[in-house]
Amino acid sequence: MAEVSEQQIAEIGSKIDGIADSIGRVFVGDERIIRLFLAGFVSGLHVLIEDVPGVGKTTLAQHIAEERPSIYLDLESPADRGKLADAALYLPSHEDKLVILAEVQRIPELFRTLRGLIDTGRRRNIGTGRFLLLGSASVNLLAQSGESLAGRIAYVELEPFNVLEVDGAERDRLWVRGGFPNSFLAATDEASAIWRENFIRTYLERDIPQLGPRIPAETLRRFWTMLAHVQGGTLNAAQLARALGIDGKTVARYLDLLVDLLLVRRLPPFHGNVAKRLVKSPKVYVRDSGIVHALLGLDDREAVLGHPVAGGSWEGFVLENLLGAAPERTQAHFYRTAAGAEIDLVLEMPGGRLWAIEIKRSLAPKLEKGFHHARQDLKPDRCFIVYPGDERYPKAEGVEVIGVREMARMLAET
Fold first, then answer.
1. What is the pTM of this model?
2. Are 106 and 75 a contacting pair, CB within 8 Å?
3. Gap between the Cα atoms of 265 and 260, Å rounded
4. pLDDT, tens digit, for every residue of 173-183?
5. What pLDDT, on the 0 to 100 scale, is given for residue 159?
6. How many CB atoms lie within 10 A of CB 120?
7. Phi, psi dihedral angles at 357 (to 5 degrees)
8. What gap in Å lies between CA 160 and CA 122, rounded to an integer?
9. DSSP assignment of 182-225, as one string?
10. Is 9 helix (H, G, I), strand (E, B) or coil?
11. Helix (H, G, I), strand (E, B) or coil at 69
């Protein structure tokens, strides 16, 4: 990727700030997002924005298009698909514009044509940021673009709202409703819950089948709901298989699908150079806390706090916010030994530094012996307890208590 100047970052940052304001988002971790966009608009690569439907990639792309001459094609529209019946003939006639192709996974064969056009453009010195591709995240989409556009494309994963994008006083609303804009911004808890239920049903019954997998919607919903019930637990594939009446390989296939669609996160155990008997199964999280609550029928804060999932839901909420803010190339794990030493989140930062993070729902967080034993095993460079409060203070030697918002900001600035 080409080097970019601070002036370029500032200029693009100013434009992105304006886009963000117009769609109700505030990109506080600007530099990370700016550099991702610059990957396409400065260094000669092209950009693929992926998200789960409903996060806002189309709105964002339309506002980006206002900054330069553009053409927008929605590949779910028969008329726009018809224009691309001979894409090799149609697209070169717009090589002086930014071409935005929405829902590119609908025409897989288009990637091969784009590869040829990009390579031809490079030879003629017309290669910088010509195509902005929008796609619902899917393993098929990633495979197609990875195979056909390797070295020609930069990926941007557009995530739901996070704690740095909302007012601090609205953190609990973000936790309960989740980060999908229509859910978070709904006028009432009931309206938010209805939107999330409709999202789940539509995604299972229409969107996933359109992406390729042929799995009964009711079966996949039961699987997704089971994962929500054990939010943040270690994966027990055999137990899930028995409950669903399927085999372990099918459980693995369902889980892979939800991970590839950015709906579920699989957090691997940390191994490193530790001479201990370690837990080998990953921990599994439904990525959006609002979807966790919708799957379990928890419509408001009181319902969430009264349910056993509250602790796991909060842990997943903190995890997603911290990982979304962490520097690129940060590796995330958890640490647990058979003897009970445990740390919720271990971040391997660029450069090899280790940060150990324990996540607590209590306003008066306490550390268990397992955390101290894990510290002795790993010898992390920094240790934190992330909790629901705002005050930052030392808890023990080398351990700081910190709120989720400040922790996310610290990671974004690292």
1. 0.82
2. yes
3. 9
4. 999 999 998 99
5. 80
6. 14
7. -130, 120
8. 34
9. HHHT-SSHHHHHHHHHHHHHHIIIIIHHHHS----HHHHHHHHH
10. helix
11. coil
Give strand pairing partners of 265. 285
Q: How long, in residues, is the chain? A: 414
Rounded CA-CA distance 23/181 in Å is: 9
Q: Which residues contact 360 (CB under 8 A, 6 or more apart)?
A: 366, 385, 386, 387
Can you tell me whether residue 281 is helix, strand or coil? coil
Tokens representing 334 are 């958890």
66 class by beta-carbon count within 10 Å (0-12 exposed, 13-18 middle, 19+ buried): exposed
The DSSP H or E segment spanning 395 is strand 393-396
| Residue that has been written with the tokens 């372990």 in this structure | 248
Place of tokens 């939107």: 195
Model pLDDT for residues 62-119, shown as the tens digit of each residue: 777 777 788 999 998 999 999 999 999 999 999 888 888 888 877 878 888 888 888 8
- The radius of gyration computed from the CA coordinates of the chain, to the nearest angstrom, equals 22
On whether the CB atoms of residues 319 and 285 are closer than 8 A, the answer is: yes
What is the DSSP code (8-state) at residue 101?
Answer: E
- Residue 92 and residue 118: Cα distance in Å, rounded? 10
CB 183 within 8 A of CB 161: no
Indicate the DSSP class of residue 53: T
Q: Under 8 Å CB-to-CB from 322, ≥6 apart: which residues?
A: 345, 347, 357, 386, 404, 407, 408, 411
- Two tokens, residue 27: 């990109």
Residue that is written with structure tokens 């997002």 in the block: 33
174: its two tokens: 């973000």
3 state SS of 372:
helix
Q: Which two tokens stand for residue 383?
A: 């240790």
Please report the DSSP string for 129-177 in residue order.
Answer: S-EEEEEE--HHHHHHHHHHSTTTEEEEE-PPP-TTSS-GGGHHHHHHH
Neighbours of 233 (CB within 10 A): 13
The alpha carbon of 231 is separated from its chain's Cα centroid by a whole number of angstroms, namely 17
Contacts of 93 (CB under 8 A, 6+ apart): none
What is the DSSP code (8-state) at residue 389? S
Give me the sign of the Cα torsion angle 403, 330, 338, 397: negative
